[in-house]
């Protein structure tokens, strides 16, 4: 497997003060998130655990001595992330995140403004969580062979906890099914993390036979892809709601295979969803993107 981390690509999007701190970090391995809070210590989420960061780029196990971000850092970072116009991405912000050029997703926290009981905007933004994208080429090799054994593609649910590499695996699987097995692949990329499309062009390698429905609610995306794109397999990230369940079920009943990722620590955490998938894969808690176990959904998995 070839693993690529791209922390450097984030640097143009953060404030100059934070950029200088990050440039001093010597080892970027296993960095999953950069967490920037107003008047809070700068911190990083790792594959296992978290650390604070000092002004000279050293990792700390406590906030004492850590670099403190302020309101100006938040404002400047948002300005850089939105090309100087926060309001231009207001529709994304009200969903609690924005997606940057290159496929980085940024979670946003602040004060929600409600209209008719629904969030219409988030103001007084005070916290940003930048997720670092990674591509692990070959991490889905074993899974691809398993779900295509016997011809066709078995609908498959990929289960894993935070930072286990769910998006990484389904991204690699899209590329493998497209380029190696020559299947027509469609990606329902609601948060723009799988393909990292910018102006209609995927920045991540998801395969030459893959089409992408970007920034569209999963339920609507699956329905449109089934009706209009004639895919042999649809790949979708982070399912969990009842609406997701029925959208996936309808796609499968229409004769399209679905590969989906779901949050969970065990197969039993996804028991309801396993009913509509032919098999399931559980990701390792220790190594990002590593398949721990694959089962037929009729198997005993408790």
Automatic annotation (TrEMBL):
Give the UniProt keywords, A-Z. ATP-binding, Nucleotide-binding
Write down the InterPro entries for this protein, in alphabetical order: AAA+_ATPase, P-loop_NTPase, Spore_III_AA_AAA+_ATPase
Note whether Chloroplast occurs among the keywords: no
- GO MF terms, alphabetically ordered: ATP binding
- Which SMART domains does this one have? AAA
Enumerate the spans annotated as AAA+ ATPase domain: 152-287
Q: What is this protein called?
A: Stage III sporulation protein AA
Q: Which organism is it from?
A: Qingrenia yutianensis
Starting at the broadest rank, the lineage of the source organism is: Bacteria, Bacillati, Bacillota, Clostridia, Eubacteriales
């Amino acid at each position: 497997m070839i693993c690529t981390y791209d922390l450097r690509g984030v640097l143009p999007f953060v404030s100059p003060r934070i950029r200088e701190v990050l440039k001093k970090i010597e080892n970027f391995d296993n960095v999953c998130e950069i967490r920037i809070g107003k008047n809070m210590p700068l911190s990083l989420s790792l594959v296992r655990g978290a650390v604070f960061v000092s002004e000279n780029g050293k990792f700390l196990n406590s906030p004492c001595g850590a670099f403190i971000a302020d309101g100006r850092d938040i404002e400047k970072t948002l300005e850089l992330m939105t090309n100087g116009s926060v309001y231009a991405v207001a529709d994304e912000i009200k969903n609690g995140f924005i997606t940057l050029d290159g496929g980085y997703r940024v979670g946003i926290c602040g004060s929600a403004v409600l209209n008719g009981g629904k969030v219409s905007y988030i103001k007084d933004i005070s916290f940003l969580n930048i997720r670092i994208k990674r591509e692990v080429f070959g991490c889905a090799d074993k899974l691809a062979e398993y779900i295509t054994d016997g011809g066709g593609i078995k609908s498959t649910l990929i289960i894993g906890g935070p930072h286990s590499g769910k998006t990484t695996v389904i991204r690699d699987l899209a590329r493998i099914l497209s380029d190696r097995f020559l299947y027509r692949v469609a990606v329902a990329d609601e948060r723009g993390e799988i393909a990292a499309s910018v102006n209609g062009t995927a920045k991540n390698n998801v395969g030459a036979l893959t089409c992408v429905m970007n920034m569209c609610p999963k339920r609507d995306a699956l329905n449109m892809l089934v009706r209009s794109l004639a895919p042999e397999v649809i790949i979708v990230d982070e399912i969990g709601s009842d609406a997701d369940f029925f959208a996936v079920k309808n796609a499968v009943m229409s004769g399209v295979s679905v590969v989906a990722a779901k949050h969970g620590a065990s197969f039993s955490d996804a028991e309801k969803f396993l009913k509509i998938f032919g098999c399931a894969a559980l990701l390792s808690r220790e190594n990002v993107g590593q398949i721990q176990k694959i089962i037929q959904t009729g198997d005993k998995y408790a």
